[in-house]
């Protein structure tokens, strides 16, 4: 585990890479064996190349699912990370295909679903995980461009991709949205990011009510601080000192490994959560939040 003394000040070029994390992140515990909870299922995971998305991908493969993962188009580090996940999955005897895409573009989301259906013939699990953040201490200096890009990446993409996927989902299929504890705690230096995370929670709740009659469950996961490339690539770019002892102010006095978040995706993707919809799971190290 990472404790508050292990992480030092550092930064990465955006969007960051798991390869350059110091210390390295853990994506799945060596003690996680899986029990075929997702056998026969096809999962589409946005941002599945790194961080929390990579952990979800690893756990889904261990549970017998076939996976499709997206990575941010135009970044070589993203492609390398995605290829690494694909190789890992194949070494485990699984099936993984990777897709470069700009999820902020509605047509690219439509085209993505067409490609995934051609490759897999179905989608049973949609994980809206891709996201971004940019710290800002003063709303008067928060540019319109940053505000719009944060919403386009975190909220609009979720709408575009879910809308494109819905006609192909059937009873028993699921949607899982990655939100954040910051949607509840709302730190002052993350106004745009926190606002999008709150929107994701409301989107999850409302859509779950809409899809109840179709037997499709919709839930969210709101992690606390997690050791992913997004931290040195955004917080670190703003100020490398922000990354030092990342998560040390949480009740557990450390951030999470991605491996500690991945099992929550398995729960919500599997029949183990058949009576859970419209809810948010909070793997956040003990932070008390409402909702």
TrEMBL record:
Domain of life: Bacteria
Keyword Oxidoreductase attached: yes
Protein name, as recorded: NAD(P)-dependent dehydrogenase, short-chain alcohol dehydrogenase family
Alphabetized UniProt keyword annotations: Oxidoreductase
Oxidoreductase as UniProt keyword: yes
Pfam assignment, any one: adh_short_C2
Family: Belongs to the short-chain dehydrogenases/reductases (SDR) family.
A GO MF term: oxidoreductase activity, acting on CH-OH group of donors
Biological source species: Acinetobacter boissieri
Transmembrane segments: none
